[in-house]
Design brief:
The structure holds two protein chains of two kinds. Chain A has five helices and eleven strands; from the N terminus they run H-H-E-E-E-H-E-E-E-E-E-E-E-E-H-H. Chain A is an alpha+beta fold. Among the domains of chain A are: 39 residues, no CATH class; 130 residues, Sandwich (Immunoglobulin-like), CATH 2.60.40.10. Chain B folds into two domains: 405 residues, 7-stranded beta/alpha barrel (Alpha-Beta Barrel), CATH 3.20.110.10; 117 residues, immunoglobulin/albumin-binding domain-like. In chain B, helix 1 runs parallel beside helix 14, helix 16 packs antiparallel against helix 17 and helix 18 runs antiparallel to helix 19. Classes of the chains: A alpha+beta, B alpha/beta.
Chain lengths: 285, 537
């Protein structure tokens, strides 16, 4: 008989010398934080890059996570701030790895000496922002606000600019999120999918003035549901060139034509094992 | 049973990140390649050869990513693979001797010894250490379509902030494909199926004619495609998108409900590297004494508990045949159902990670072998097809704008952009902009070499594998180190370049370490005009 060791620790589910399996691991990120277990909230907090969240109570976690959601600020002064963990990236990346087998290259630059704000889509309802502000940019803002600089708060200002030529004043809506740090990052949870947004980073004075130091790129978040069926257009491509479509090549609408589109569309599928299990259970019932 | 005709497009996406550490005699993560060669690439080549010699017509599509091709072509890694497999043969021989009187486990030890010897002989003699050429042979004979992938598997939707970053990932990929296969690639696997509107135009500019995307990216296209994922669509650029079929995916992907979880199949997580006494496997430990997989696994899945029964290869083989029959049966029903609403034979696109077959699902290559044989010999309803063949037969397709999507958890960007890995993007974007500045200086001589190496370092840092590993939490220090080391080398070269103080010795040292894509010319990558065949589009 084969001699066996059964220490579970020695048989990790993903062994070190194992080819990495590229399919995504499971992460829960529901739309609403209320009603989640503390474990789920902790996971969300980790995902959102919060610091020092592990000791927080469930209520405090909900509060901290809720603070990530943008508030509508129709010109009014913001509500009193709840204490919020900073998400600033003060120092370079995470834990310094201690893999002694690898040569130690110098650390990455903590700052690049530019003033910038970058927005990246995470999913239909979340955007990630990172920024860097140079001392010059901060100084310029400070000069511009004059005496009002005292008490001014640093903030991200988001603009909903779908379908408009944005001139700085005509956004469908705008919202402020108070943030901190000359180098930092933030996750913004949106009110719905398929958004087109711009962001500014700057300072809002108590008199309501906002001085921006940088504007982001335009960021679009994707749909999370099928579109309505629309007018169909067909194309013919031969050898990489678009050519006129021959008469009769376009299929006529047929009885039951929606079938092919509807069948997979009914599956809320994104290819994950967790979803598969859910699907299988649903079918079994 | 004869039913409505249909097409099955099987796609295997073969990819591993570029891992090569000449500075160490042995390096744990290089085993990713050696395990995949033993478990997946060689067995797949074996299956394809068998089909060919038995006259079974088949069509298979495979991605061989540029980073994988770079490792296939690397003489150091080839030599190290031979050493790796020789060590496995030695271990299997020792096991065969130790278990010589054991009726249950003895034959299994012999099974592994033979298997490893076959792998060594195939690698050294049949393929002459050149797996690229081995796969290319099937492409030249028409049964395999090899598509490309972004140079280092960069997750393009998050790199696209700096458009040249995406363009250089694609251009280097196309050049490497030409170098490896002597022709241009027709299609591309977008890393992690990561698509965002506009990426198709970059593909069009490089004369790539199709890509593969996740089901929901296609089903949420505007307007909604009439045939769902069962016919390709054209993006406005004229590039075709093929959508993954959910039904066929889940039967193979799922380790629980899918075929790979069957109790008769081999258990991946019971390896003698963890089961035996240390004195029996002391040559197979990591440098720090950690136990490692050896590839010798004596048990079958059995059930969900820790109790495992001995693996019986003949039983597992029967199961693989049965599952191939089941897969085919389901596809035939699916096609019959779909055909009623379509003016053309329904297409089922079934893409999988190649390494699932053989490495994770040991019997996967056998399943594939049975499936192709049944498809050829037992029925005429379903025809296997490659995307290029499909587009030749059906060049008229609906025009839609697919939706941003990926095949990661929840279907968007979050696996590659979350609290565990978001810090990388600031650095990747800055390095991409700096790379533009380097390329703009039209360098020659040593400056040209430095710019080329800087691009190599940037590409290596962009690999989606690092962000993915940071997210999943295994081997995280290595992924962080790879990202930061490549970026740090990039910045070192950049600083020396702009200060006009290049250290040629240091440059050579980096060139010898990160050797992938030796042929490219930075000027061509950044400034080449679009291919002429596309200028009229």
């Amino acid at each position: 008989m084969v001699k066996r060791r059964t220490t579970p620790a020695r048989r990790p589910r993903a062994s070190a010398a194992t080819t990495p399996r590229r399919r995504a691991a499971s992460v829960q990120r529901p739309d609403a934080v209320r009603g989640l277990t503390r474990i789920k909230l902790l996971d969300l907090a980790k995902r959102a890059g919060l610091r020092g969240y592990s000791h927080l109570s469930k209520a405090a976690l909900i509060q901290a996570l809720g603070a990530l959601t943008p508030r509508e600020t129709p010109g009014a002064a913001p509500a009193p701030e709840t204490p919020r963990p900073s998400t600033a990236l003060e120092a370079p990346p995470p834990t310094a790895p201690t893999d002694v087998r690898l040569n130690n290259e110098p650390a990455l630059p903590a700052r690049y000496g530019v003033t910038e704000l970058v927005a990246l889509p995470v999913d239909p309802v979340m955007v990630y922002l990172y920024w860097e502000l140079t001392p010059d940019a901060i100084h310029t803002a400070r000069r511009s606000l004059g005496a009002a600089w005292n008490g001014a708060v640093q903030a991200l200002r988001g603009y909903d600019v779908a379908w408009i030529e944005f001139d700085g004043t005509n956004a469908h809506r705008q919202f402020d999120i108070e943030v901190g740090g000359d180098v930092g990052s933030w996750y913004v949870h949106l009110w719905g999918p398929e958004q087109t947004l711009l962001f500014d980073i700057g300072w809002r004075a108590s008199d309501g003035r906002f001085v921006a130091a940088a504007r982001s790129n335009l960021v679009r978040t994707p749909r999370n549901a099928p579109c309505e069926t629309g007018e169909e257009r067909w194309m013919t491509v031969r050898d990489g060139r678009i050519v006129p479509t021959p008469a009769g090549a376009i299929p006529k609408p047929a009885e039951g034509a929606a079938r092919a589109g509807a069948l997979p569309g009914e599956l809320p599928w994104s290819g994950t094992l967790a979803e598969l299990r859910g699907l299988a259970k649903g079918r079994a019932r | 049973m004869t039913g409505q005709p249909g097409y099955l497009c099987l796609i295997l996406h073969a990819h591993l990140p570029f891992v090569r550490h000449p500075e160490h005699p042995e390096f744990l993560e290089e085993n990713w390649l050696y395990e995949a060669i033993t478990d997946t690439y060689l067995p797949l080549l074996d299956v394809l050869s068998g089909l060919e010699s038995d006259g079974a017509r088949f069509r298979l599509t495979m991605t061989l990513t540029p980073s994988l091709l770079a490792m296939f072509g690397d003489s150091l890694l080839r030599a190290r693979y031979v050493r790796y497999i020789e060590k496995r043969i030695d271990l299997a021989r020792a096991e065969e001797y130790r278990l010589r009187d054991d009726a249950a486990f003895g034959p299994l030890a012999a099974f592994y010894r033979e298997r490893f010897e076959r792998a060594r002989d195939a690698f050294v003699h049949r393929h002459r250490q050149d797996l690229t050429a081995a796969f290319a042979g099937f492409q030249d004979r028409g049964s395999l379509e090899i598509i490309t992938c972004a140079a280092t598997h960069g997750f393009l939707p998050l790199l696209a902030l700096v458009p040249s970053a995406v363009r250089s990932q694609i251009r280097v990929a196309v050049e490497e494909y030409r170098r490896a296969f002597g022709r241009r690639p027709r299609g591309i696997w977008l890393p992690e199926c990561g698509y965002a509107p506009g990426l198709d135009r970059v593909l069009r500019d490089e004369d790539l004619r199709f890509f593969v995307m996740e089901s929901h990216g296609m089903l949420r296209a505007r307007p909604r495609p009439r045939f769902g994922v069962h016919a390709p669509v054209y993006c406005p650029s004229g590039v075709a998108a093929f959508g993954r079929d959910a039904e066929s995916s889940k039967q193979v992907w799922s380790a629980v409900e899918g075929y790979p979880g069957n109790p008769d199949y081999r258990e991946y997580y019971r390896d003698v590297g963890f089961d035996l006494d240390l004195d029996a496997i002391h040559l197979f430990l990591a440098g720090d004494g950690t136990r490692l997989n050896t590839g010798i696994k004596y048990y079958r899945i059995t059930g969900r508990t820790d109790h495992k029964e001995v693996y019986v290869p003949s039983r597992a083989r029967e199961r693989a045949a049965e599952h191939a029959g089941n897969f085919l049966f389901n596809r035939r029903h699916q096609i019959d159902y779909l055909a009623a609403g379509m003016d053309r034979p329904p297409l089922i696109v079934a893409p999988y990670d190649a390494e699932l077959f053989g490495h994770w699902w040991f019997e996967g290559p056998q399943w594939l072998d049975f499936l192709f044989r049944k498809l050829h010999f037992d029925q005429s309803q379903i025809e296997t097809i490659t995307p290029s063949e499909y587009l030749e037969r059906h060049p008229t397709n609906q025009v839609v704008e697919p939706s941003a999507s990926s095949w990661g958890h929840n279907g968007y960007n979050e696996v590659w952009l979350n609290g565990a890995n978001d810090w990388i993007y600031r650095h990747l974007h800055h390095a991409s902009r700096r790379m533009e500045a380097l390329a703009a200086r039209a360098p020659t001589g040593v400056r040209k070499r430095a710019a080329a190496q800087a691009l190599r370092e940037l590409l290596l840092a962009q690999a989606s594998d690092w962000a993915f590993i940071m997210k999943t939490g295994t081997m995280v220090p290595y992924a962080i180190k790879r990202t930061t080391d490549h970026l740090a080398r990039f910045h070192r070269l950049y600083d020396q370049f702009v200060a006009d103080r290049l250290d040629e010795g240091a440059l050579r040292e980096i060139e010898e370490r990160d050797t992938c894509f030796p042929g490219f010319d930075v000027d061509r990558i950044f400034h080449a005009p679009e291919p002429t065949s596309q200028e009229t589009v």
